[in-house]
Amino acid sequence: MASGNSDINIENTNIKTASGVSLDDQQKTLVGSVLDYGLQAAFKEIERLHHEVTDGGNPIGIDLKTRYVVKGIGKEQTISSKVNIFYDKDTGKITKVQDKWDGQLPDSSFTNIFRQLNSVTVPTLISVPKNDEEDRQRGNQ
């Protein structure tokens, strides 16, 4: 695996953790990868207002507060989320992302559609390179 998030193209490298929570380099890279990801195709704007890692285990727990503006209709919504990142420690791949908007699984069709897109798409799109060669093949070095 690459030696840390400084070796790959991760924008969110300033990972805020709650008191008493520590992350290893692989976990920081996974958190940064999820924080980098956004549903840009559906949203005109996505602004992360706050994030804090609350659990350094597996899953990694994150509290998020994000402002979204939906393309086309211009609807703005601020969502507080509890995100759990499940991962395979051996491969460095995210296996599942659980995004609980406002601390619970959403009931409305609007929030349910985007929560499902996020939980299915993130594990497919994001994985941590196993080594520097794989990282170079992805165009990150």
Task: Write a brief structural summary.
It is built from three helices and four strands; from the N terminus they run αββββαα. It is an alpha+beta fold and 141 residues long.
Descriptive account of the structure:
With 141 residues, the chain is an alpha+beta fold. Helix content is 25%, strand content 33%. It is built from three helices and four strands, in the order αββββαα. It has helices spanning 25-36, 109-125, 132-137, and strands spanning 43-55, 60-70, 76-88, 93-101. The protein has a four-stranded antiparallel β-sheet, with helices on one face. The longest helix is centred in the C-terminal third of the chain and has 17 residues, at 109-125. The two termini are 14 Å apart. Residues 1-6 have low confidence and may be disordered.
Give keywords:
globular, four-stranded antiparallel β-sheet, alpha+beta, single chain, 141 residues, disordered N terminus
* β-strand number: 4
**What composes the largest sheet?**
4 strands, antiparallel
Order of strands, main sheet, comes to: 1-2-3-4
SSE class: alpha+beta
| Low-pLDDT residue spans | 1-6
Number of helical segments with 4 or more residues: 3
Computed over alpha carbons, the radius of gyration is 15 Å
**Relative helix content:** 10-25%
First-residue to last-residue Cα separation: 14 Å
Shape: globular
What's the pLDDT, averaged over the residues? Answer: 77
Beta content comes to 25-35%
SSE arrangement, N to C: HEEEEHH
Fold topology:
Blueprint: H1 25-36, E1 43-55, E2 60-70, E3 76-88, E4 93-101, H2 109-125, H3 132-137
